[in-house]
Specification:
This protein has about 475 residues and is mostly helical. The chain is built from 20 helices and eleven strands. Helix 16 packs antiparallel against helix 20. The chain binds glutamic acid (GLU). Monomer.
Length: about 475
């Protein structure tokens, strides 16, 4: 067998163009989000373009709602695309034109076989135990002998030799051309097939690098036939192993959330999500935590692993925690507001926004998610009188409330600084033979009404004297 190597473009001079080509038959899956992210990083790190193509040719299953959900998911993840998203279905006429061109040039032919004939061929092949790939009897029949009947346009696949594809992740893969059939390009109703649409669109969009799930690897061989027939240069292919769950099986609902929007609604920060998804199947030395700028600089196809990565919630959370801690306060406020909108909560008031921003340095240290951050922020989001929750209320027994009553005048005159406040509260606790913790518990209940909050001194500094004193007064005996 002669191995026929496909012509590869010289990419050193070509500006990079990548694309994400989701089918809008469902929401944005974590795997799709990672594919989009890889394409985005690859293009953005090289001053290239990242395009979006909605593969909506399955009219029955594609919906505008799904398309919108995919765009929303990408937007949440911060993956911006160049130009308008392209509808694959809208290009049907162009796809058909390419099939007709191939017919005119002799790399495709009219096939008049009916469904029944094809089925009969397959049954016979099965019975004989041979290959069931359909071999059309029309491949070499001259035009003059064609009937006046509906026909499909089929590609003339190479019958012998082999095809090798150099994949940036999988390496060189070769298949015998006897495994390729004369696939239909244009159905007898004039509609183009998906495989043709993908190739024509990628070519027309100037896509230089196709980075996608390895479930499309076998498609690449069939697609390569079309490139070759048209004399088009092949893009660089990188087929990325799918994502597995912790048990080593393909990630599915069984493993928990699989939709990008679900992670948004659980309140994971987009930067942490990007970092985690970038690491999921790609590595750069032993770097785990990195910024977007680093990811853009480092991301390359050589760093993509050959075996499937396993989704690990703990790692995701660990990175999210670090990204929240490292984020700018105003940016976190903005993202917290978007999170609240995403889960259908009312908008923050001006006062709540101010409070949240002022408290942010004390909130962001240990939070992995926005719900955690906002729980800690309850003291700036709630209005007086603070209604302590059940657990917190236990810290407000009669004794504690009496001590809080004593604290009020002292807070009114103390200079409003951390050291002084700590001194006042500690001295009062000592005077009553209590540990600081016990009094702090009561004070926390008065100021926040929750067990989870920043330290009582941080809260007092954020709230200011008047509001703090008023809350302590409300809770005291
Ligand atoms: N529409 C395909 C999918 O959602 C992607 C095809 C491609 O990337 O070539 O899996």
């Amino acid at each position: 067998m002669v191995s026929e190597r496909l012509k590869l473009p010289d990419m050193s001079q070509t500006p990079v163009v990548t694309r994400f080509a989701p089918s809008p038959t469902g929401a944005l899956h974590i795997g799709g989000a990672r594919t989009a992210l890889f394409n985005w990083l690859y293009a953005r790190g090289r001053g290239g373009k990242f395009l979006l193509r909605i593969e909506d040719t399955d009219r029955a299953r594609s919906t505008p709602e799904n398309t919108q959900a995919i765009l929303d998911g990408l937007t949440w993840l911060g993956l911006d695309w160049d130009g308008e998203p392209i509808s694959q279905a809208a290009g049907a006429e162009r796809h058909a034109e390419v099939a007709r061109q191939m017919l005119a040039e002799g790399s495709a032919y009219k096939c008049f076989s009916t469904q029944e004939e094809i089925e009969a061929f397959r049954e016979e092949a099965r019975a004989k135990g041979g290959s069931t790939l359909f071999r059309s009897p029309w491949r070499d029949v001259a035009e003059a002998e064609h009937p006046d009947a509906p026909f499909a346009i089929r590609i003339k696949a190479p019958r012998d030799g082999a095809t090798t594809i150099r994949d940036e992740v999988q390496g060189e893969i070769t298949i015998g051309n006897d495994q390729l059939d004369d696939m239909v390009l244009l159905r007898s109703d004039g509609s183009p097939v998906y495989m043709l649409a993908v190739v024509v669109d990628d070519h027309d969009m100037g896509v230089t690098h196709v980075i996608r799930g390895d479930d499309h690897m076998t498609n690449a061989f069939r697609q390569a036939m079309i490139y070759r027939a048209m004399g088009w240069e092949l893009p660089v292919f990188a087929h990325v192993p799918l994502i597995f769950g912790p048990d080593g099986k393909k990630l599915s609902k069984r493993h928990g959330a699989t939709g990008a929007a679900e992670y948004q609604k659980m309140g994971y920060p987009a930067a942490g999500m990007r970092n985690y998804l970038t690491r999921l199947g790609w590595s750069h030395g032993d770097a785990e935590y990195f910024s977007d700028a680093e990811a853009r600089e480092w991301f390359d196809l050589g760093g993509i692993g050959k075996s499937p990565a396993r989704f690990d919630m703990k790692k995701l959370e660990n990175l999210c925690r670090q990204h929240i801690a490292a984020s700018d306060d105003a940016a976190l406020l903005h993202e917290a507001e978007e999170f609240l909108a995403a889960i259908g909560r009312p908008k923050l008031t001006e006062g709540q926004r101010d409070g949240l921003l002022a408290a942010m340095p004390h909130l962001k240290e240990r939070a992995k998610t926005f719900p955690e951050l906002l729980e800690k922020a309850h003291f700036v989001l709630a209005d007086r009188p603070i209604a302590p929750d059940e657990k917190s209320a236990k810290n407000l027994d009669d004794v504690s409330r009496g001590i809080l009553a004593e604290l009020t005048p002292q807070l009114q005159t103390a200079s409003w600084e951390r050291d002084t406040l700590e001194g006042v509260v500690t001295a009062l606790a000592e005077a009553h033979g209590l540990g600081l913790g016990k009094l702090a518990g009561a004070l926390r209940a008065a100021l926040a009404g929750r067990m989870v909050s920043p330290s009582v001194f941080d809260m007092m500094l954020v709230l200011g004297r008047d509001e703090s004193v008023a809350r302590v007064k409300d809770a005291s005996a």
